[in-house]
Description:
Blueprint: E1 7-13, H1 16-25, H2 29-32, E2 39-43, H3 47-53, H4 55-59, E3 66-74, H5 84-100, E4 104-109, H6 122-127, H7 134-143, H8 157-170, H9 179-187, H10 190-194, H11 199-211
Parallel strand pairs: 1-2, 1-3, 3-4
Amino acid sequence: MGSAEVRDLVVLVPDADIEQTVHGLFTRFDVLGLRAVSWTVTRHPERDPGCRVRAVQLLRPYLSGFRYALVIFDRDGCGSDRPRTEIESRVEDELFSNGWMDRAKAIVIEPELEAWLWSGSPLVSDELGWGRDYLGLRRHLASADLWPAGAAKPPDPKRAVREALRVARVRRRARRSPAKFRRLASQVDLTVLAACQDPAFGDLVETLRHWFPGADR
Length: 217
């Protein structure tokens, strides 16, 4: 009997929102500049804190069956107030010393996944129940003191999402669902996402392109 097939990537996430975002992004290998990737995603039962301090234990069963491992979680709620890059380094050091060597990467989103939502795309306002009126949504959030003038995105992105959905629910046009993250990740122009200048998103794309370069790279 031959040896079991080794797959490309296992992704550890804390919740359904990030899981659905991964599913959405990974429908777009060609757009991301990647070759086709065999992958699976698994959730940590202890959510963000579990991803930060116990990724090694949960990923150990995947060690021999996968070439690479990603750990993606929010900085807010992970249980550490250290800088994003320091949190990432600590997670990676533990993974490296427990068998993954240089085959693992931690991505810590600051402050949280909702920061990736505010990309400027009208698809975002549509998913939040505002139709394609992204500027109207931005004006509302500014009037609610949730989006300061001159800021690229709301400083509390999750609170801004909740406010957008609150008003939309009054209009009976939207509700919160992890599926929104999947749809947006699979549809929003990646050049628009890149323009959100989020370092975690940039690190994610750069890591994937390094591990799984497409034919033109």
